[in-house]
Q: What sequence folds into this?
């Protein structure tokens, strides 16, 4: 496996050795700024909004969109395979993982697009490299910017145009000139009474204060603004206990509490904040061992969060302008390993949903018999999807963001 | 910017080389603080013993039992270590914490508190001395090998993960080696294998590639130790190592070139970490009032417990659980760094979400201390804060219960940031 994009570039982007826009950290979201932006230049009617959901760890595509009727699938994974009667039938011999009941409902309403066999040439099996490739949209050469970061650069370098609803800014949102704003999510249960007043008073700016202290004070004010605006939309972090089982696949990063992240995104879209691209994530998909329970639990969490989000988006005009894109850095090996799990693989399915999405299958299902050294051969380049959403959702010429690739998926968006 | 006075300098030394002052520490002055911090620590607390993880099994019940035992051992290790941080008055524990963030290894993938403890003890044993000895121990450290796929690094099928990170993140820094060096270094480290039930990694001869490799211009049939020697012999290595110490203990602003020269000279041929700390303390920038550092959440919690004289062992199970939740809410759980690159720094800790968790933890600890500060001034002395701003003084005037005074003071920007 040749590794054109090195691990160090991912780490560079992760801020280990800060470079580019991230050297100075992401712009922390100032809630007052966000809301006054919504008041001054609200999200325009008809302006598309992109919500990117990253599944960290390498989600097993073959047990997500399952070729249950294919004997080659059953043979490759005797203890891991779903039987045809267990999956939620999509046609074409494919069925959704039983954890994805809500998405099956969306599929039946023609509201879910499944792009099959998505990957890139010369796949890399490292989480960090492959995730860097997806997030920079540059499989052949390493670049220090993420694809939505470059999009931000083209739109006038306004950090509010893109927002991460994760504790840490993902590399995809770092441009050369600017990095997206970051809205850390957490518990917002604040004390009342004298203690509450005193705590809030700590956020008062103090003239001439040392910069880090000034930032600490500002974060307290932001917190109170966030609590006031979002109210109950954001879940209490204390409820997010670590789950022993999900940790089995957690070595490659990513957040939890996807539902809470998407609740916050929905609230912001409804508030007509002029942000056009959001990033959320769910971690834990690195299922080298005991995969079936772990993955199904995670997919159920994904399903619950996405279904509620889709339903909420349908309720407002601005919500109906949003498109959700769900991807992972790679799928997994066709054959199960010796630990009831699967090792790092290649191509996998990408989901898109939202009112502008045309439901159905796109791209060809990779063959289970014509393999590349035990791995699926990709049938669709992920940059085709990026180009499509850049053009059709973000109204941007894809050539300005993705330099060395031409291609799109016609008919994916209405 | 003005220099710190002696009392503030003592406070800074405790903040940066230890886990923060206890009440009364500052009365003894900066020289005393430095001397005590850099004294070799006595091995006072009882050592922790953990059993190796159970052998893998297909049996469902046995698997569940093993998972439960692993989780219980991780909690034991975490409590033991946090307890040591709170109790230890020398730089040794702070350096153990520093090296954990430097050779960032997560139990999330290692899944063996037994091996995490072994690594932790190596940091404690070797972290204040010769960096070469530490690096040689770590390159064959079982937890690090499990974390960076060393077990998959075999002759004929090298895995570059450990070799790359070792040069990039642990010893040399980006740009001072080539991709060929990474591949060759991976070959040099082939065959080091960890068994679940053994505290030591072993070199398995038939998995080791004993043909000569060329790393950083040196051709040899490398051993793990001679590979480390070759990497550390690169002149860039010393500057990299002192730069990382500076970044975590002094400031996110890199040291000036002449300061780097002085620190590298102190590091010297013996690669003496304690000598670097001594040299840092002598740097003009270390005495400057604007050399600030945002406390990492662990440093903030442990420092607060020390200031309030709340021993870890005094916490009941519920409080321990709530503190764990608090640390998670602030974004930092020891033994679980987010990636091999370690934790973020600076503004990354000053998030809205962290603010709530911080207040919750502060209230939890304020309810468990015997200290009863009546007003802002008493809280300032208790927490060894140099001075309150009018803003914080006004905020503190709004509360009257001592536990509320403590909670608000602990969340004040003047305490969240180390001056």
A:
């Amino acid at each position: 496996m040749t590794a054109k994009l090195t691990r160090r570039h991912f780490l560079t982007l992760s801020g280990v050795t800060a470079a580019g826009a991230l050297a100075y950290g992401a712009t922390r979201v100032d809630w007052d700024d966000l809301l006054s932006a919504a008041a001054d230049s609200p999200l325009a009617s008809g302006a598309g909004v992109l919500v990117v959901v990253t599944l960290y760890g390498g989600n097993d595509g073959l047990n997500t969109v399952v070729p249950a009727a294919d004997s080659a699938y059953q043979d490759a994974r005797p203890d891991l395979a779903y039987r045809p009667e267990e999956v939620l039938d999509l046609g074409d011999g494919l069925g959704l993982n039983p954890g994805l009941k809500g998405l099956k409902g969306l599929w039946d309403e023609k509201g879910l697009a499944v792009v099959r066999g998505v990957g890139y040439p010369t796949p890399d099996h490292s989480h960090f490299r492959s995730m860097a490739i997806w997030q920079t949209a540059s499989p052949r050469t390493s670049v220090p910017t993420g694809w939505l970061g470059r999009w931000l650069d083209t739109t006038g370098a306004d950090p509010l145009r893109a927002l991460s609803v994760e504790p840490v800014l993902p590399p995809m949102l770092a441009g050369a000139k600017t990095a997206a704003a970051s809205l850390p999510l957490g518990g917002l249960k604040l004390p009342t009474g004298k203690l509450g007043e005193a705590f809030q008073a700590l956020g008062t700016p103090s003239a001439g204060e040392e910069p880090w202290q000034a930032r600490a004070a500002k974060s307290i004010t932001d917190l109170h603004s966030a609590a006031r605006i979002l109210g109950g939309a954001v879940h209490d972090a204390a409820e997010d206990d670590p789950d022993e089982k999900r940790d089995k696949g957690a070595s490659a990063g990513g957040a939890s509490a996807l539902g809470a992240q998407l609740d916050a995104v929905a609230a912001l879209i409804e508030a007509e904040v002029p942000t056009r691209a959001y990033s959320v994530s769910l971690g834990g998909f690195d299922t080298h061992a005991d995969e079936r329970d772990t993955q199904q639990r995670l997919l159920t969490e994904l399903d619950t969060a996405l279904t509620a989000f889709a339903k909420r988006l349908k309720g407002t005009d601005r919500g109906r302008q949003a498109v959700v894109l769900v991807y992972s850095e790679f799928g997994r090996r066709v054959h199960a390993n010796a630990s009831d799990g699967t090792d790092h693989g290649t191509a996998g399915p990408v989901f898109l949903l939202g009112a502008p999405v045309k439901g159905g299958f796109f791209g060809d299902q990779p063959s289970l018999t014509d393999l590349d050294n035990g791995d699926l051969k990709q049938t669709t380049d992920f940059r085709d999807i990026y180009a499509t959403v850049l053009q059709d959702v973000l109204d941007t010429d894809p050539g300005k963001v993705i330099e060395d690739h031409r291609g799109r998926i016609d008919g994916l968006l209405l | 910017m003005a220099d710190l006075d002696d009392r503030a300098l003592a406070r800074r030394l405790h903040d940066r080389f230890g886990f923060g002052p206890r009440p009364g520490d500052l009365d003894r002055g900066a020289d005393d603080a430095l001397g005590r911090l850099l004294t070799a620590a006595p091995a006072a607390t009882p050592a922790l013993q953990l059993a190796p993880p159970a052998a893998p099994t297909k049996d469902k019940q046995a698997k569940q039992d093993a998972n439960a035992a692993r989780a219980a051992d991780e909690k034991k290790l975490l409590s033991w270590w946090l307890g040591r941080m709170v109790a230890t008055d020398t730089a040794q524990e702070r350096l153990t914490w520093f090296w954990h963030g430097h050779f960032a290894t997560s139990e999330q993938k290692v899944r063996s508190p037994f091996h995490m403890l072994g690594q932790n003890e190596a940091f404690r044993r070797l972290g204040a001395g010769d960096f070469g000895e530490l690096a040689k121990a770590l390159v064959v450290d079982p937890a690090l090998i499990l974390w960076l796929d060393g077990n998959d690094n075999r002759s004929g099928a090298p895995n570059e993960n450990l070799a790359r990170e070792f040069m990039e993140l642990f010893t040399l820094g980006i740009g001072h080696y080539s991709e060929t060096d990474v591949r060759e270094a991976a070959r040099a480290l082939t065959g080091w294998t960890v068994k679940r039930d053994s505290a030591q990694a072993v070199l398995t001869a038939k998995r080791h590639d004993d043909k000569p490799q060329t790393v950083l211009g040196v051709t040899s049939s490398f051993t793990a130790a001679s590979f480390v020697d070759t990497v550390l012999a690169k002149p860039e290595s010393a500057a990299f190592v002192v730069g990382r110490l500076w970044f975590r203990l002094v400031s996110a602003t890199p040291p000036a070139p002449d300061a780097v020269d002085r620190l590298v000279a102190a590091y010297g041929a013996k690669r003496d970490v304690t000598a670097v700390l001594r040299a840092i303390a002598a740097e003009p920038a270390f005495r400057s009032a604007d050399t600030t550092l945002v406390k990492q959440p662990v440093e903030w919690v442990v420092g607060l417990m020390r200031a309030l004289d709340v021993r870890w062992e005094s916490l009941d199970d519920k409080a321990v659980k709530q503190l764990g939740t608090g640390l998670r809410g602030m974004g930092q759980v020891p033994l679980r760094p987010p990636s091999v690159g370690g934790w973020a720094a600076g503004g990354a800790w000053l998030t809205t979400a962290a603010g709530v968790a911080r207040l919750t933890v502060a209230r939890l600890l304020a309810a468990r201390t015997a200290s009863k500060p009546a007003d802002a001034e008493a809280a300032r002395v208790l927490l060894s804060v140099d001075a309150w701003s009018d803003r914080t003084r006004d905020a503190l005037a709004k509360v009257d219960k001592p536990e509320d005074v403590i909670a608000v003071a602990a969340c004040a920007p003047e305490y969240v940031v180390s001056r």
